Fold this protein.
Amino acid sequence: MSDSSNLFDKISNYLKLQEQVYAPIMMDAQAFEDATSAVVSAAPETSPEPNIEVKPEPKQEPEKPTRNLSKTPDQSLKEILNACKTLEDLKQVCELADDLKTDLPNTNLVFGVGNPNADLLLIGEAPGANEDRLGEPFVGRAGQLLNKILEAIQFNREDVYIANIVKHRPPENRDPLPKERQRSLPYLERQIDIINPKLILCLGRVSAHTLLETSAPLKDMRSKFHPYREKYELMVTYHPASLLRNPNWKRGTWEDVKMLRKRYDDLDCRP
């Protein structure tokens, strides 16, 4: 798969990677809190994530797939998804998939963004208002905090791939319903398989519950790697939006992402 990083929005240009990706991690827990405090302290403690105007750079038109992915009456969803060999193929199918939509009318597809060859895949819960407007996950205040977290473990946003459990915004920023998650899951599973990451990081309870098929408390799922579909290693941590409301969870998040970075290096992963 060719390098398509120039196809994605560069919405976090103000961040600069401070060290080489494979340099030792020198930041401690206090430094991590300091690095993320500006974003967290600016957020209300209990109110929902506010809408923040983020002006994206002009998007380039993606190359149109040559494969015919139109569904015929005798084809199953599994057959259609298996026919998708690239993320662009899959995105074309998702654009036409009514079963990916929530009860909120006139929303935009939020497919995913990042390195299509990434060894690390981050999966959040659902798009918000900013994400719906721009068609990209994690672009509001929670996205700014996620960028800081990635930077703290020496990742650039463009080194990883970021997606959500559901690809359309739910009404009033509610959690996606179980039926919405189940309808979206086959599309996400195909997206995961096309990217074929070595590690998956679930951001938040909804993401972890959906992929691991559990109702366990988030605290019981953290600090360990879970097998996922017998092919991937999956880790769970707090959603950045939760950290905006509960800054005391940042130390636990720091411990999680340090463990993730170590495993990434142990597996000889590459951006």
